[in-house]
Amino acid sequence: MDGITVIGGGLAGLTAAIACAEGGARVTLFEAHRTLGGRARSSEQPYVANDGTRVFYSDGEPFRWLARRGLVQPYRKLGLKEGRKARVRYGGTLKAAIPRPLIKAIANRRLVAPVDEDFASWATRRLGADAAHVVGKVLGVVTYDHDPGRLSAAFVWERFRRVTKPRFPAPRYIVGGWSKVVERLATHARDLGIHIEAGTRVTDLPTGPTIVATSLDAARQLLADDSLRWESGRAVLLDLAVRQAPGDLFVISDLDEGGFLERYSSPDPTLAPPGESLIQLQMPVRPGESKADTLTRLELLADLGLPGWRDRLTWRRDATATGRTGALDRPGQTWRDRPAIVRGDGLWLAGDQVAAPGLLSEVSMNSALVAARHALTALPTLRVR
Ligand SMILES: Cc1cc2nc3c(=O)[nH]c(=O)nc-3n(C[C@H](O)[C@H](O)[C@H](O)COP(=O)(O)OP(=O)(O)OC[C@H]3O[C@@H](n4cnc5c(N)ncnc54)[C@H](O)[C@@H]3O)c2cc1C
Fold first, then answer.
1. Burial, 166: exposed, middle or buried (Cβ in 10 Å; 0-12, 13-18, 19+)?
2. Residues 149 and 136: beta-carbon distance below 8 Å
3. Residue 373 belongs to domain spanning
4. 3-state secondary structure of 129
5. Atom 52, ligand 1: which residue's CA is nearest?
6. For residue range 165-223, what is the model confidence (pLDDT) as tens digits?
7. Long-range contacts of 67-75 (CB under 8 A, 24+ apart)
């Protein structure tokens, strides 16, 4: 059987390579960085903060695909300890109870939202302005957008239904962080005979069947195809480690500003040294807002959730994520309208801004599995592009 080339060693590339190898193909994977994982990498011990991918939902097929191969185990679920330390910020203060407008939205989760209308208009009409507002802010955590109300109602509502499923909480926390999943994916790939060339940036497309599993920006350059564009979010990220204090919260879902604070070392203490906590915060950037101003808003969120954190700080880093947080669909668009996976001529795209369903990195994995299926089907008859 002929070989398949995969370009990119993030979740999409590793998934595509493994699926192709499991289908019987000879596979070579090229990754520009010396380390695999792309946005699914984590910082090194003793402070293990995930660069991108943080939480995976166990009710999605990508999680099941990984779990069937033993690649996400061991993981932790949320417990009572975390539940007791969860708050929302609403009307300027922290509350343990879910606000009424959010309860109203959850009670109406069976509604079907239109693709063509923006979420704010549709939800205001169906649920009232307060509910429309809080749902948008709840989804700051999965859209990384300052105003999800401007996006397609169907897109926003699908995500809201997903994160408020009756079997909630479905999030799973990988023990040791996402770099552990990347390590296991790489080991599994090598066991399947996949040839991995890390530290090799591809600048010219190979002639055989090829899956391009880079970010969409990198694919646009590599394929010299200016049509490869899709909207994504923009947020400031703040990772902290602090000496533990009894008053530290586990989660703040910020219904005022769309921010989010989560103390990941609560379900997984291996992420920080004994006696310390590892916390990751995010805040969508407003139009025209500077990083410094967004960071100030984020630090105020930290003040609420981690009283006195500045005096207990042992480690910190911050960054801005621009166009790296997955696809956003505007009114009139669905995932089917994003750049197609099948490019013709023995070329396929995978990644989190291409035409595949799912939440965040699920899009990368779903598109990778589709691309691999196509590549395997094409192999016997494919000649040279
Ligand atoms: C702050 C943040 C938080 C997130 N939180 C979550 C979350 O909680 N849950 C979730 O599911 N998802 C989350 N995501 C999204 C998730 O991280 C991404 O969807 C996923 O990691 C993308 O994987 P990928 O393989 O498609 O792309 P990437 O991870 O970008 O991998 C592409 C790879 O291609 C390589 N490459 C590029 N060009 C070339 C070239 N020419 N030759 C060779 N290699 C090349 C790059 O070096 C890179 O390693 C988050 C993202 C961010 C930024």
1. exposed
2. yes
3. 3-40+57-75+175-231+330-378
4. helix
5. 52
6. 876 668 899 999 999 999 999 999 999 999 999 999 999 999 999 999 999 999 999 99
7. 69/18, 69/188, 70/184, 71/181, 71/184, 71/185, 71/188, 72/172, 72/174, 72/181, 74/175, 75/172, 75/173, 75/174, 75/175
Task: Kindly give the distance from the C-alpha atom of residue 56 to the centroid of ligand 1, in angstroms, as a whole number.
Answer: 14
Model pTM score: 0.97
Instruction: Please give the tally of structural domains in the chain.
Output: 2
Q: Does 204 lie in the same domain as 68? A: yes
Find residue 94's DSSP bridge partners: 89
The answer to the question of residue 190 being in a domain is: yes
Which residues' Cβ are closer than 6 Å to ligand 1?
Answer: 7-13, 30-33, 38-40, 52-56, 201-202, 213-215, 218, 222, 237, 321, 324-326, 351-352, 360-361, 364
Domain edge (last residue) among 163, 197, 212:
163
The strands making up 3-7's β-sheet, listed across from edge to edge, are: 195-198, 26-31, 3-7, 210-212, 347-349, 342-344
The residue nearest atom 3 of ligand 1, judged by CA position, is 52
CA of 250 to the centre of ligand 1 (A): 26
Contact of 143 with 328, CB cutoff 8 Å: yes
In which residue are the tokens 């704010």 written?
A: 120
CA neighbor of 111 nearest in space, from 169, 152, 158: 158
Among protein residues, the one whose CA lies closest to atom 2 of ligand 1:
52
Residue 123 inside a domain? The answer is yes
Q: Indicate whether 350 belongs to any domain.
A: yes
Residue 22: phi and psi, rounded to 5, are -65, -25
Task: Select from 53, 139, 143, 268 the residue to mutate for testing ligand 1; criterion: most ligand atoms less than 8 Å from CB.
Answer: 53
- pLDDT tens profile 104-162: 999 999 999 999 999 999 999 999 999 999 999 999 999 999 999 999 999 999 999 99
The predicted-structure confidence for 326-365, as pLDDT tens digits, reads as follows 999 999 999 999 999 999 999 999 999 999 999 999 999 9
